[in-house]
Amino acid sequence: KEIYSFNEVESTNSVAKFLAKQGSPEGTVIISETQTKGKGRRGKKWESPSGGIWLSIILKPDIDPSKAPLITLATGVAVARTLRGMNIDARIKWPNDILINNKKVCGILTEANAKFNTVEYVIVGVGIDTNLNVDVLTEDVKKRATSLSVEAKIEISESETISNFLNEFEEIYDLFKLEQFDDILYDWRKMSQTIGSYVEIKQPLGKVLKGTAVGINNQGALILELNNGKLKKVISGECTLKE
Ligand code: BTN
Protein backbone atom coordinates (compact mmCIF):
# COMPACT_ATOMS: atom_id res chain seq x y z
CA LYS A 1 0.00 0.00 0.00
CA GLU A 2 1.13 3.46 -0.84
CA ILE A 3 1.97 6.08 1.80
CA TYR A 4 2.58 9.65 0.64
CA SER A 5 4.47 11.74 3.14
CA PHE A 6 4.75 15.53 2.98
CA ASN A 7 6.32 18.30 5.02
CA GLU A 8 3.49 20.69 4.32
CA VAL A 9 0.19 20.54 2.47
CA GLU A 10 -2.99 22.58 2.62
CA SER A 11 -4.97 19.62 3.89
CA THR A 12 -4.26 15.89 3.69
CA ASN A 13 -7.99 15.38 3.05
CA SER A 14 -7.80 17.59 -0.04
CA VAL A 15 -4.70 15.78 -1.33
CA ALA A 16 -6.45 12.46 -0.67
CA LYS A 17 -9.54 13.58 -2.56
CA PHE A 18 -7.41 14.63 -5.53
CA LEU A 19 -5.54 11.31 -5.54
CA ALA A 20 -8.75 9.29 -5.11
CA LYS A 21 -10.19 10.99 -8.20
CA GLN A 22 -6.98 10.27 -10.11
CA GLY A 23 -7.47 6.59 -9.36
CA SER A 24 -5.32 6.00 -6.26
CA PRO A 25 -6.50 2.73 -4.72
CA GLU A 26 -8.16 2.00 -1.43
CA GLY A 27 -5.68 2.02 1.42
CA THR A 28 -3.58 4.90 0.10
CA VAL A 29 -2.42 7.03 3.05
CA ILE A 30 -1.42 10.70 2.97
CA ILE A 31 0.53 12.12 5.90
CA SER A 32 1.87 15.61 6.45
CA GLU A 33 4.04 17.20 9.13
CA THR A 34 1.99 20.40 8.96
CA GLN A 35 -1.14 21.66 7.19
CA THR A 36 -1.76 25.25 6.17
CA LYS A 37 -5.51 24.79 5.68
CA GLY A 38 -6.36 21.87 7.96
CA LYS A 39 -10.09 21.23 7.90
CA GLY A 40 -12.25 20.52 10.92
CA ARG A 41 -15.89 19.54 11.01
CA ARG A 42 -18.60 22.06 10.12
CA GLY A 43 -16.24 24.17 8.05
CA LYS A 44 -14.02 24.96 11.01
CA LYS A 45 -10.29 25.37 10.68
CA TRP A 46 -8.12 22.65 12.20
CA GLU A 47 -4.86 24.01 13.56
CA SER A 48 -2.10 21.74 12.33
CA PRO A 49 1.39 22.83 13.40
CA SER A 50 4.12 20.23 13.73
CA GLY A 51 3.72 18.00 16.76
CA GLY A 52 0.66 16.20 15.51
CA ILE A 53 -0.28 13.34 13.25
CA TRP A 54 -2.27 14.68 10.31
CA LEU A 55 -3.26 11.90 7.97
CA SER A 56 -5.93 10.80 5.54
CA ILE A 57 -6.85 7.39 4.18
CA ILE A 58 -8.49 6.76 0.82
CA LEU A 59 -11.26 4.15 0.95
CA LYS A 60 -13.36 2.81 -1.88
CA PRO A 61 -15.90 0.62 -0.14
CA ASP A 62 -18.68 -1.07 -2.01
CA ILE A 63 -21.45 0.09 0.32
CA ASP A 64 -24.69 1.95 0.48
CA PRO A 65 -23.98 5.67 1.19
CA SER A 66 -26.14 5.46 4.32
CA LYS A 67 -23.45 3.24 5.88
CA ALA A 68 -20.72 5.86 5.45
CA PRO A 69 -21.17 7.45 8.92
CA LEU A 70 -20.21 4.12 10.45
CA ILE A 71 -16.73 4.54 8.99
CA THR A 72 -16.29 7.56 11.25
CA LEU A 73 -17.34 5.58 14.29
CA ALA A 74 -15.05 2.72 13.28
CA THR A 75 -12.15 5.16 12.93
CA GLY A 76 -12.85 6.51 16.41
CA VAL A 77 -12.66 2.98 17.74
CA ALA A 78 -9.33 2.44 15.95
CA VAL A 79 -7.86 5.63 17.45
CA ALA A 80 -9.16 4.83 20.94
CA ARG A 81 -7.74 1.31 20.75
CA THR A 82 -4.39 2.68 19.59
CA LEU A 83 -4.21 5.03 22.57
CA ARG A 84 -5.36 2.39 25.01
CA GLY A 85 -2.53 0.24 23.68
CA MET A 86 -0.24 2.99 24.99
CA ASN A 87 -1.91 2.79 28.39
CA ILE A 88 -3.83 5.99 27.87
CA ASP A 89 -7.46 6.01 28.95
CA ALA A 90 -9.02 7.33 25.76
CA ARG A 91 -12.76 7.81 25.43
CA ILE A 92 -14.97 8.59 22.47
CA LYS A 93 -17.31 11.53 22.41
CA TRP A 94 -20.16 11.26 19.94
CA PRO A 95 -19.85 11.39 17.05
CA ASN A 96 -16.11 11.35 16.64
CA ASP A 97 -13.88 13.15 19.11
CA ILE A 98 -11.34 11.24 21.15
CA LEU A 99 -10.92 12.59 24.65
CA ILE A 100 -8.42 12.04 27.43
CA ASN A 101 -9.43 13.40 30.84
CA ASN A 102 -12.30 15.19 29.12
CA LYS A 103 -10.03 17.05 26.72
CA LYS A 104 -9.91 16.55 22.99
CA VAL A 105 -6.81 14.85 21.64
CA CYS A 106 -8.09 13.74 18.24
CA GLY A 107 -10.65 14.76 15.65
CA ILE A 108 -11.92 12.83 12.66
CA LEU A 109 -13.27 14.30 9.44
CA THR A 110 -14.86 11.87 6.99
CA GLU A 111 -15.71 13.12 3.53
CA ALA A 112 -17.67 10.82 1.26
CA ASN A 113 -18.41 11.26 -2.40
CA ALA A 114 -21.49 9.44 -3.62
CA LYS A 115 -22.71 9.18 -7.20
CA PHE A 116 -25.99 7.55 -8.21
CA ASN A 117 -26.34 6.00 -4.79
CA THR A 118 -22.95 4.31 -4.86
CA VAL A 119 -19.94 5.52 -2.97
CA GLU A 120 -17.12 6.67 -5.23
CA TYR A 121 -14.63 7.19 -2.45
CA VAL A 122 -14.49 8.01 1.23
CA ILE A 123 -11.70 10.07 2.75
CA VAL A 124 -11.07 9.50 6.42
CA GLY A 125 -9.03 12.32 7.94
CA VAL A 126 -7.52 11.88 11.37
CA GLY A 127 -5.76 14.52 13.44
CA ILE A 128 -4.03 13.45 16.65
CA ASP A 129 -2.20 15.88 18.91
CA THR A 130 0.89 13.87 19.77
CA ASN A 131 3.75 16.07 20.94
CA LEU A 132 1.93 19.31 20.38
CA ASN A 133 2.45 22.15 22.79
CA VAL A 134 -1.17 23.15 23.28
CA ASP A 135 -0.07 26.67 24.21
CA VAL A 136 0.49 27.39 20.52
CA LEU A 137 -3.21 26.84 19.79
CA THR A 138 -5.73 29.66 19.74
CA GLU A 139 -7.36 30.52 23.05
CA ASP A 140 -10.73 28.78 22.72
CA VAL A 141 -9.24 25.60 21.21
CA LYS A 142 -6.53 25.46 23.86
CA LYS A 143 -9.04 25.27 26.73
CA ARG A 144 -10.53 22.06 25.37
CA ALA A 145 -7.45 20.41 23.87
CA THR A 146 -4.68 18.19 25.10
CA SER A 147 -1.94 16.10 23.55
CA LEU A 148 -0.62 12.60 24.10
CA SER A 149 2.72 13.82 25.44
CA VAL A 150 0.98 16.06 27.99
CA GLU A 151 -1.22 13.19 29.18
CA ALA A 152 1.38 10.41 29.08
CA LYS A 153 4.16 12.71 30.32
CA ILE A 154 6.59 11.28 27.78
CA GLU A 155 7.64 12.12 24.24
CA ILE A 156 5.50 10.10 21.84
CA SER A 157 6.92 8.26 18.84
CA GLU A 158 4.85 9.49 15.94
CA SER A 159 5.95 6.75 13.52
CA GLU A 160 5.04 4.05 16.02
CA THR A 161 1.69 5.66 16.75
CA ILE A 162 0.94 5.92 13.02
CA SER A 163 1.79 2.29 12.36
CA ASN A 164 -0.22 1.08 15.36
CA PHE A 165 -3.16 3.16 14.26
CA LEU A 166 -3.01 1.90 10.68
CA ASN A 167 -2.99 -1.69 11.96
CA GLU A 168 -5.98 -1.05 14.21
CA PHE A 169 -7.74 0.71 11.38
CA GLU A 170 -7.17 -2.14 8.97
CA GLU A 171 -8.55 -4.61 11.48
CA ILE A 172 -11.72 -2.66 12.11
CA TYR A 173 -12.19 -1.74 8.45
CA ASP A 174 -12.16 -5.45 7.64
CA LEU A 175 -15.06 -5.88 10.08
CA PHE A 176 -16.80 -2.98 8.39
CA LYS A 177 -16.45 -4.55 4.96
CA LEU A 178 -17.86 -7.80 6.33
CA GLU A 179 -20.75 -5.68 7.62
CA GLN A 180 -20.06 -6.76 11.19
CA PHE A 181 -21.39 -3.46 12.43
CA ASP A 182 -22.47 -4.86 15.78
CA ASP A 183 -18.86 -5.62 16.72
CA ILE A 184 -17.81 -2.08 15.85
CA LEU A 185 -20.71 -0.52 17.72
CA TYR A 186 -20.09 -2.77 20.73
CA ASP A 187 -16.55 -1.43 21.03
CA TRP A 188 -17.69 2.11 20.39
CA ARG A 189 -20.24 1.93 23.20
CA LYS A 190 -17.70 0.36 25.55
CA MET A 191 -15.28 3.26 25.09
CA SER A 192 -17.90 5.97 24.83
CA GLN A 193 -17.83 8.97 27.08
CA THR A 194 -21.19 10.15 25.85
CA ILE A 195 -23.52 7.29 26.67
CA GLY A 196 -25.01 7.69 30.10
CA SER A 197 -24.14 11.39 30.26
CA TYR A 198 -26.43 14.37 30.26
CA VAL A 199 -25.63 16.24 27.07
CA GLU A 200 -26.49 19.28 25.05
CA ILE A 201 -26.60 18.94 21.26
CA LYS A 202 -26.41 22.00 19.08
CA GLN A 203 -27.99 20.97 15.79
CA PRO A 204 -26.81 22.24 12.40
CA LEU A 205 -29.62 24.81 12.20
CA GLY A 206 -28.91 26.08 15.69
CA LYS A 207 -31.61 24.30 17.69
CA VAL A 208 -30.36 22.97 21.02
CA LEU A 209 -31.50 19.63 22.43
CA LYS A 210 -30.86 18.57 26.01
CA GLY A 211 -31.15 15.14 27.48
CA THR A 212 -29.47 11.97 28.57
CA ALA A 213 -27.61 10.06 25.88
CA VAL A 214 -28.94 6.54 26.17
CA GLY A 215 -27.37 4.92 23.12
CA ILE A 216 -26.48 4.96 19.47
CA ASN A 217 -28.39 3.08 16.81
CA ASN A 218 -27.04 0.94 13.98
CA GLN A 219 -26.51 3.97 11.79
CA GLY A 220 -24.48 5.76 14.41
CA ALA A 221 -27.23 8.21 15.36
CA LEU A 222 -27.34 9.25 19.00
CA ILE A 223 -30.46 8.37 20.99
CA LEU A 224 -31.37 11.04 23.52
CA GLU A 225 -33.87 10.78 26.32
CA LEU A 226 -35.32 14.27 26.52
CA ASN A 227 -36.36 15.92 29.76
CA ASN A 228 -39.98 15.03 29.01
CA GLY A 229 -39.03 11.35 28.84
CA LYS A 230 -39.37 11.07 25.09
CA LEU A 231 -36.68 9.42 22.98
CA LYS A 232 -35.16 11.38 20.13
CA LYS A 233 -32.80 10.25 17.39
CA VAL A 234 -30.08 12.78 16.61
CA ILE A 235 -28.18 12.38 13.36
CA SER A 236 -25.72 15.23 13.64
CA GLY A 237 -24.76 18.09 15.88
CA GLU A 238 -22.20 19.49 18.26
CA CYS A 239 -22.28 17.56 21.53
CA THR A 240 -21.33 19.05 24.90
CA LEU A 241 -21.19 16.85 27.97
CA LYS A 242 -22.92 18.38 30.94
CA GLU A 243 -21.91 15.82 33.56
C1 BTN B 1 -12.76 17.86 13.88
O1 BTN B 1 -13.25 18.97 13.65
O2 BTN B 1 -12.79 17.37 15.00
C2 BTN B 1 -12.12 17.05 12.78
C3 BTN B 1 -10.66 17.38 12.61
C4 BTN B 1 -9.97 16.56 11.52
C5 BTN B 1 -8.54 16.98 11.30
C6 BTN B 1 -7.80 16.07 10.35
S1 BTN B 1 -6.07 16.40 10.29
C7 BTN B 1 -5.87 15.38 8.89
C8 BTN B 1 -7.10 15.59 8.02
N1 BTN B 1 -6.88 16.68 7.09
C9 BTN B 1 -7.69 17.72 7.36
O3 BTN B 1 -7.69 18.81 6.72
N2 BTN B 1 -8.49 17.43 8.40
C10 BTN B 1 -8.25 16.09 8.90
TrEMBL record:
<feature type="domain" description="BPL/LPL catalytic">
    <location>
        <begin position="1"/>
        <end position="177"/>
    </location>
</feature>
<dbReference type="GO" id="GO:0005737">
    <property type="term" value="C:cytoplasm"/>
</dbReference>
<dbReference type="GO" id="GO:0004077">
    <property type="term" value="F:biotin--[biotin carboxyl-carrier protein] ligase activity"/>
</dbReference>
<keyword id="KW-0547">Nucleotide-binding</keyword>
<keyword id="KW-0436">Ligase</keyword>
<dbReference type="GO" id="GO:0005524">
    <property type="term" value="F:ATP binding"/>
</dbReference>
<protein>
    <submittedName>
        <fullName>Biotin-[acetyl-CoA-carboxylase] ligase</fullName>
        <ecNumber>6.3.4.15</ecNumber>
    </submittedName>
</protein>
<dbReference type="GO" id="GO:0006355">
    <property type="term" value="P:regulation of DNA-templated transcription"/>
</dbReference>
<keyword id="KW-0067">ATP-binding</keyword>
